[in-house]
Amino acid sequence: MFTLLLVALSAALAQDPESVDWQKQQADKAEKPKSNLSIEIGGSYTSGNSVAITAYGLITAGHKWDSNQIGLEAKGAFGSNIPDANGDGKLDASERAAGLEANTQRVGGKLRYDRLLTDKDSLYVLAGGFHDPFSGFGYRLHEQIGYSRKLVDAKRTVGEGDAAKDFKTQLVAELGIDYAQEHYIPGVDPIFAQFIAGRAQIAFTHEFNENASISEQIEAYENFFTPDDLRLYNTIALSAKINATLSLKVSHDLSYYNRPPDPDLKKLDQTVLVTLVASLI
Prior knowledge:
Order of helices and strands: HHEEEHEEEEEEEEE
Strand content: over 45%
Distance between the termini: 40 Å
Helix content: 10-25%
């Protein structure tokens, strides 16, 4: 039913004068294709009375041409430490000899295609997945379709003439349907599940000036067949430019599963990151 709704919406927008005019304007402009590529890295190392290593990396890339846009994201977070196995509050020789044990291991990515209908509306398809054994997932795959709408797309200009600079504020809302296949770690019963969920997202970005910006993304999934299976994701980030290529980013990621794969697993995961971002294109 939702697919038919999207098809009908696409057809309606195709006949909408705003959509037709926008498509014509895009063709008249003959805008050159645009690409972007950025790499984000961060990590920490602790030695002495405690020993721990963490590393984080994110690659994002995109390409836009005519009324099409494609985006790719791949990221990974890894962490290891030497645990206090006997709980005496310190690391003894035998615990140090046992070496590091993994305590964080999450890798994933997604590929998304948008068909731009107007300067504010688009339809999208997405495929992605991740591996996170410490949250109970051997791996999770999902496919998604949906509709995206820019609710706010404001621009303010500071300065005049050649010195003028534009700063943007955007608020984007999305609705979609997600089909997921989840394979859990050994010991979780059942070890496999699949479901269809509704997805809603609000994403906000604001440029304070040419050097500082803030963004927040709130995403919710609700299982159509098990309504109390609710999942929430929230990411808020503050970025400050170091130079034309490098930026320093402070972010907070939150994941909440109302029904985790196993009752012994926590419902809430949070991560605070300080990373260096290189915008290569």
